[in-house]
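Hi everyone,

Forwarding the result from last night's run.
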Amino acid sequence: MSVVVVGVNHRSVPLDVLERMAVADEQLPKLLGDLTGSPDVTEAVVLSTCNRTEIYARVERFHPAYADVRDSLARHSELGLDQFSEHLYVHHDEDAARHLFSVTCGIDSAVLGESEILGQVRRAFDRAREEGFVATTLSDLFAASFKAGKRVRSTTGIAKNVTSVSRAAVAMATERLGSLEGRTICVLGAGEMSEGMTVALRDAGTREIFICNRTTSRAAELAERVGGVAVALQDLPDLLADVDVLLTGTGANSLMVSQEQLASVMADRTDRQLLIVDIAVPRDVDPAAADVPGVTLLDMDDLAKFAEAGKAERRNEIAAVRDVIDTEVDRFRATSLSRQVEPLLAEFRRDVESLRATEINRLAPQLDSETAAHVDAATRAVLNKLLHSPMSELRGAAGTARGERLAEALRELFDITADE
């Protein structure tokens, strides 16, 4: 039995492949069901963000489970194995835990130290648990990762001067234009990413923020919180004729803005440029829109380059973050190994205690109550001393080849049938 992570991220695959492998919220139950339909996958969590799509799974046999996870990703993305399999990364057991902890701590993100990822991991876990695809093993693993993520942000400076991908998108737009003061901005979407962008825009002193979303009521709620103006999705083309910047970050599975739409818009505003920053995965804006005269289109690839140029100051914190991760991985490993052997030790103690109690009960009629109490206490003390050394030895060797030999010997010598 093992824990594995199989996935792709912004570094391992081109953006056009990453967006094909993205998993929308409404697609999660089907993919989780497909994954756990394999006889070798018993628990699963799907983490899909603008930077990554990863499957965390508890598996019975590594190689068959890996093949099943890979095939599930192929069915979901409708990609051939030859289009993505060589880009997959796979981590196993302790390395899987270390990878997850690195993700939640923000050092595996396009924006080093970004804060949004911890909440995204938590929501991915909660969703899998609500759907019934998580049990003890992944619950323990993810709980430990949340602890590591919170500890890193409270004890290191990894998040200094950076809070999120959404703020980085606004910073990139600011760098391109010199300033956003007095600019008119349209934000497409009303989810977490879009909210982060609108808050950053408000702090940047923009003149007016329009929020456009399929569900107008959600746009109105966000607009009220940030002092913006809600706009219906069908009015987006008209709005684009007037704004200086379009920022997008929806969770849509198809393009929201086509090249043709933008060509029509730009035909009527030949004297004004339009900057578009699209941080959605899959992308909201047709990549071909970059060819429309007057349009500057930036996406997650551009954001990664922008973030890379600005993270030198936080690089010094990586060593401190890795120290925290090492400590938390060691603690998780020790706890997990102890839990693996505890059922066997508990059954062993129950068996020998049953034998002791049987003998005490057999002798009880021949003893007065005071003597019976002394005999009970003495035999209990002797039993505890006899068991202490072998049980401590087995706990200490848990997870090693020697520990497996000791556990097997204990099961055979005392005919113990408890599950590991």
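Strands lie at 2-9, 41-48, 52-59, 89-92, 184-188, 208-213, 229-232, 245-248, 274-278, 295-298.

Cheers,
N.
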